Amino acid sequence: MRIALAGAGAFGEKHLDGLQKIDGVEIVSIISRRAEQAAAVAAKYGAKHSSTELADALARDDVDAVILCTPTQMHAEQAIACMDAGKHVQVEIPLADSLADAEAVLAKQQATGLTCMVGHTRRFNPSHQFVHNRIKAGEFNVQQMDVQTYFFRRKNINAKGEARSWTDHLLWHHAAHTVDLFAYQAGPIVKANAIQGPIHPELGIAMDMSIQMQAESGAICTLSLSFNNNGPLGTFFRYIGDTDTYIARYDDLVNGKEEPIDVSKVDVSMNGIELQDREFIAAIREGREPNSSVAQVLPCYRVLDALEQQLK
């Protein structure tokens, strides 16, 4: 399986680290907006080709699939270009920043039959897989999820502290993780409300947001998001269920009393990004729909669109 990766920033390297652990995968091409960065990352991961243009990778006959870790605003157009070129594609979250663009990607996937997967990593983190497995076994039912997504990002910088060429978004990016996960764990979302705080004068986005949701099952979810939080960073999920309480912090899981739960045997790795990439590769090889396919996650983007209309 020969892979091109576009977007060689902080998150792109997480995918490259994961791909190196998957048998039979060759990293062929690295695309980045800066030629020197593309060349340096290609050298680090043994890729034979680097460029500033995605089209250069798509034109190669030794590329089977593409992983897009590019700015959100480019995702839909680039995903469609990949499939037009006959390449399977994994798009990092979010799939798009509008429902129309998300639907266009799904239409292209259906027309081509190629694998198109979206990087909703929470489906793959061992912590959330553990909870999902208990739900499927009938041992746990979500009654409430309480989620905090907190960053300190008053300037336009990435996870490495480097200047970003684009502006991140609490609703279309960070809320997408929880909206999709809530539906994945509790069932289809039938009600959603949102309010947001002041708009940042330079970034032009809300720095704080609160979202409430209810699933068809009756379960509820409260999501708090902030770019203003000068404290512990990341996303913390509390599952309150009919039999247990769990708190998930990325790949780690504890119960409601903060007692650790061993999730090391849930899957072949403890790295959610690696597991996500393993699913992408396996789905292509097996000719099947991947978990977190564009079709499976589209309901999330319908909810985000409805919330955006409310906020307007």
- Tally of DSSP helical segments: 9
Question: Which sequence of strands runs across the widest sheet?
Answer: 8-9-10-7-11-12-13
The percent range for strand residues is: 15-25%
Major beta sheet summary: 7 strands, mixed
Q: End-to-end distance, in Å? A: 44 Å
Give an overview of the whole structure.
This protein is of the alpha/beta class. It is built from nine helices and 13 strands. The protein has helices spanning 10-19, 35-45, 54-58, 75-84, 99-112, 126-136, 170-186, 272-286, 294-311, and strands at residues 2-6, 26-31, 49-51, 65-68, 88-92, 116-119, 142-150, 189-196, 208-215, 220-226, 234-241, 245-249, 252-255. Strands 8-9-10-7-11-12-13 form a seven-stranded mixed sheet, covered by helices on one side. β9 (208-215) and β10 (220-226) form a beta hairpin. α5 runs antiparallel to α9 (294-311). The protein is globular.
What topology emerges from the helices and strands here?
Blueprint: E1 2-6, H1 10-19, E2 26-31, H2 35-45, E3 49-51, H3 54-58, E4 65-68, H4 75-84, E5 88-92, H5 99-112, E6 116-119, H6 126-136, E7 142-150, H7 170-186, E8 189-196, E9 208-215, E10 220-226, E11 234-241, E12 245-249, E13 252-255, H8 272-286, H9 294-311
Parallel strand pairs: 1-2, 1-4, 2-3, 4-5, 5-6, 7-10
Antiparallel strand pairs: 7-11, 8-9, 9-10, 11-12, 12-13
Helix pairs in contact: 1-8, 4-5, 5-9, 7-9
Descriptive key words:
alpha/beta, six-stranded parallel β-sheet, globular
